[in-house]
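Sample entry (170 residues):
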Amino acid sequence: MTLGANSYGTVDEIAALTPRYAPNGQFGSQTSKNRPTESSVEGFIDRVSGILNVLLAGQGFAIPITQADAKLACDDIVVNAVVDLVFTVNSAGRFYTDKRLRGKSPFSIINEELAQWVEENAYGFEALGATRTNGDIESISYRDTDESGADTFPIFQRKAFGNSFKNWDS
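Predicted structure, serialized as tokens:
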């Protein structure tokens, strides 16, 4: 299995942060006893990247993020989330506590954290030059033409209320 084209981070980065579970920088294979397998880690990367891409697309960004600094930030957030999942597979880490076991799933928590992260960083990504097809203002409903393509006009216009104004400066 290989990583998806729109994924962020690499298996090697995650192996470097979890040496206990990736001896010699390698995760296990289907026949080894090491957990998780390399294909599982690749699956985690793809899934977390998919969640991140959905959230970024919701903010109007072109997917995948290609601007260098913004991509590094995406790599970082995905790698950290997958490291947490690697620990969870091995009954360790922040998701493996009594409180977490009875609460939300790790992917549910990661989804919430990514949503907050994207919201906090959207303007920064745009300022860095990440391609954004629409901003927040464009998400407000507005029509300048009707179904036939003819220009629309305001339903309520100032003159309809008898308001007339005098320019006292002239």
